[in-house]
Structure formats: structure tokens, C-alpha cells
Write the C-alpha cells for this entry.
Amino acid sequence: MNVLERVVEFLQSKKGKQFCDKCISRNLNITPDQHVNHKTRELEKNSNEFERTQDYCSECKKHKKVIRIKQEMPSSAAATDDADAATVLAMVRLCAAAWTPEARIVGNVRAGDIVRALDEVLPQLSSVRSLVGADN
Ligand SMILES: [Zn+2]
């Protein structure tokens, strides 16, 4: 297993926690720290799974650059990426329905009008709605 893989595996095993490069180095017995730093920067740049920010390290409690696994969206909330039109619109409707109808949430459009419009133009929506849990 190379250093990058070890760092990924470490972070995945500590879900919900965030670590500075030094603490990752220490946990994995990798020296020098810069070696880990190089990998966490690589993850920051090239992986959607991780995020790297200035925050408190879960281990040493110092405020510095830390890396963590991004918080997972609820499964229904990530289903719109490159999805078909009905699924995308169903999720928009789900979001709109969660607002008070008077709230102007997209541009100047009220949430209630979004729900009404989508219900009107998408006769197949009801099946999609149950798919994404909008009927709950
Ligand atoms: Zn630390």
C-alpha cells in the first residue's frame, strides 16, 4: 500500500474526524510530515471525497489545515447529478415543498408556485416523487 492509499484508508477509518498532516504522519508512522502534506494536498485537489480547511484537528486540537471525508448527503439528495429531467425536477419540487409557500427560493419564484408548476407539467412526477421519498 502506498502513502496515498494509507492516508485515504486512515481517513476512511476515522469518519467524522479531521486531522492535520502531523497527526496523520504520527498515526501512520510516515516521515517526514511533508510526505503526508503532499498527499493531503493531492486529495484536496483531485478527490471529491475529501475536503481540506482551516479548522481544529480532532487529535492535537490545534487550529490548522485539516483534512476530512466530506459529509455524505442523504442518499436522496445526491441523486440529481446528471439525472434525468423528471428526477431533477422532483428534487427541486421536494426542496420547494419543504419551504413555506410564500418563500422566494429560486430567483423571484415562490416555493408554492414551483410546487404547483412542477405538478402541472410533470404528469409522471408522482412516480418519481415516491422514488425520492417526497411523499413521506
Ligand atoms: Zn493534529
Summary: The CA atoms of residues 77 and 91 lie 8 Å apart.
